[in-house]
Amino acid sequence: MKLIRGLHIGIAIGLLSTSVEAKSPTTTQPSPEPTRAMRVNHAQELMGKYYQASVVRQGEKHRRLDRFIKDWTRQSLPMRNKKDAETLAKTILATAKKHDFDPVLLMAVIESESSFNPVTLGGHGEIGLMQILPTTGAWMAREAGVKWRGKKTLLDPEANVKIGAAFLAWLRERFDSHAQLYLAAYNMGQRNVDYALSKDVWPQDYPFRVMNHYVKYYTELKITSKRNGERTLASRPKKKIQTLPVLTAEAAAVRKAKRAVGVRPAKTPQDDTEFQQLREFEQEANHLIGSADQ
Known about the structure:
Helices cover 63% and strands 0% of the residues. It has a domain at 36-233: Lysozyme (Orthogonal Bundle), CATH 1.10.530. The protein is globular. By secondary structure, it is mainly alpha-helical.
């Protein structure tokens, strides 16, 4: 009897624990990429008032960009590095989330700096995907959570991206989230930007190069999304112009501004950035529209 009673108790306890486990809520792993709100906030910071009418707003339609980032990383890396594409893409996404960046901006910086070649060496000693100086890497590695093993650390694509993004985040705070300035400082150094500002010169070449890549990525996202939808661009080549209302509107705005003003207005950081962005949009629109007509 005692044996049977003990068996019944054991079965009851087992059923109870199974019931408790079944009712316990399952925990879901957090996404390694930035939330849509993070991306949108940073995109608005980068684009200013032109965000609402820009192709970059296309990102609002996508809850996640991980597949896009992975595809572009795989396409962009040299053949010998393609096996590491997924790991690198995950690093870009996770690092962007850590610093509240739009991951597409990190892609644009990498494209501008090294064209996704992890062993690129710059003329002044810069190394790797995001072209980081060893002196910068040494003091920024701790902030990035990277173990510093000398300059060879920067040849590791994951470490390079983590350190480069941490440096860009530091500059972003240093320049009060002014995109034109912190992007320029990433390329030419904060002291040089400070000096240029003291001479009333607003660095623009590098920021505009990065933003041009940034806009191209979002343009490609828009085109890819349409290709994967019911209405494809390939099936209706003559309608491609209609798929670019944002860019053609920007181009029209540039022409209108030129007619109204006659000459370029006096430089201010915001006006100069916006005017140049319009010009970049116009060039991109003309390029895409020209391709559609061929």
